[in-house]
Amino acid sequence: MSAHTAQTELKLIGKLILEGEMRCETGLHVGAGKGSLEIGGADNPVVKDAHGRPYVPGSTLRGRIRALLEQATGMAIPSELVFISKRKGQEVRIHQSDRPDDEICILFGRSPGRMEKVGGGDVESNFATPARLSVFDAPLAPESITAQMRENLDDELTEVKSENAIDRITSQANPRTLERVPAGARFRVRFVLDLLCAEDAALPALVVQGLRLLEDDALGGGGSRGNGCVRFENLKLTWRGKDYYASGAAEREIAAGVDLAGLQSKVGEIGSLVEA
Q1: Would the pTM count as exceeding 0.85?
Q2: Tell me: the pLDDT tens digits for 103-144?
């Protein structure tokens, strides 16, 4: 848990801007639902922007990081989870508490109100906590889909993976197709972390931890079947203090051209920036 208390005063100290690339090491499927099927098309298309290019929604990336951090910090247990949807077959459970030192709720925010706990009973949140972390939609870098890759794709930018579910009694195959962004594709990622008090200096390390967990897990659908292995590369971390916005002061580059291991070695410098 963090050093935050109910009396901690919040006022913008500065923002950390993390930008870079997310490279697909295996095909990536972030589904768009089944509302626009075409004859001969994949059963499960990927989400695309208005120009027809695949992208990774910020909500998908943010939600996966949150889930992994909840598991890593021991918060994915019934006594710590609440329902945000109880629709049968579509239940959604996340971690939320009213503790002022709960780093997950500090990083991702919380709203006041009563929620039903998975383990029974209710939790009453009496105050709102502003989300510190913003995760933006990650557009595809079109140049990462090379001419050689295009020769083997089923569409201009995507491939179709065929799978079979086998009935264990009759051995009957139930074929399905999955649209994926191919291995080698890169997406441009951008994260913004607001630091609103000195105690927030511990949050950047938590964000990097979540990204490192994601590299050894999976993003999107079908992760247990080989989809969604990603790596973060060419990362740049920039500090913009409140004077950057108030008077045009210069930003400070903390790291550039690094991977997550290199970034993790730099987050210790942030404490001095917060205190300055």
Answers
A1: yes
A2: 999 999 988 777 788 887 777 777 788 999 999 999 999 999
Of 54, 26, 94, the residue nearest 188 (C-alpha): 54
Residue type, position 13, single letter: I
Query: Could you give phi then psi for residue 142, rounded to 5 degrees?
Result: -55, -30
Residue with the two structure tokens 């996966």: 64
* CB-neighbour burial class of residue 110 (10 A; exposed 0-12, middle 13-18, buried 19+): buried
Kind plus residue range of the DSSP H or E element containing 93: strand 92-95
Distance CA 144, CA 157 (A): 10
Pairwise CA distance, residues 80 & 67, whole Å: 13
CA quadruple 21, 26, 27, 33: dihedral, nearest 10: -80
Rounded CA-CA distance 263/113 in Å is 37
**Residue spans per domain, the chain:** 14-270
